[in-house]
Amino acid sequence: MGEWFTREIADAGRLRLFCFLVAFIAGFLFIRFSVRMIRRQVRWWPGNVTPGGQHIHHAVFGLVFMCVGGVGGLTIDDGSSGLAAAAAALFGLGAALVLDEFALVFYLRDVYWSEKGRLSVEVVFITVALSGLLLLGLHPVGLDDAAGDGLWGIALALLFNVAVAVIALLKGKIWTGVLGLFIGVVALVGAVRLARPDSPWARRRYAPGSRKERWARNRERRYRRPVQRLGDRLSDLVAGRPSAK
């Protein structure tokens, strides 16, 4: 295990990314455990931070950690040093606290325990997935495959992968589009197949009652919703179930 870590992480220049990801996951799991204990009003767990009656959301602490870790990391020349790893871990911890309340920032109101609050968990899962792909050595928009083709090869790979990823995102396929930035064939499949019925692409290009609109809704009902329910169960298991209201 030690040899693998040295070869694949430290020697490959991914120590800071590894520390970021570990701290990010640990920070997210800890803060979700904390808010679930507070939600259950467990007596032995400290409650919210409310100096003077003002509830301070944990995203505030996350912003402080991100600033300290980010700026501190910029001042460290040796990316393999312990200080660099600590700065990356602090930045990851802060990012976890901020993204755990991403939905509150997006909607500008407290939707933490509502259905809309699931957005925060989805963003966290996507961040973990992207960081994991980077840690495995994958590069976005096909740059790893096109690097040997010169400037034109890089430009063409960049344009193609970004284009199909954007189309997949416009079709409402968030995971497909984001992962497609790293694995071009995933974005290509998402760009070619039918859009989700309520996506920007479908609203603009699928006329109400048209055959494509009916096919899209049928696919949503038969395939997408079972997958969504499975994802919601996983989200509830990790982050807690939203309130019924």
From TrEMBL:
Stretches that traverse the bilayer: 15-35, 56-76, 82-107, 119-138, 150-170, 177-195
Keywords, ordered alphabetically: Membrane, Transmembrane, Transmembrane helix
Keyword Nucleus: no
Superkingdom in the source lineage: Bacteria
The keyword Transmembrane appears for this protein: yes
Protein name, UniProt field: Integral membrane protein
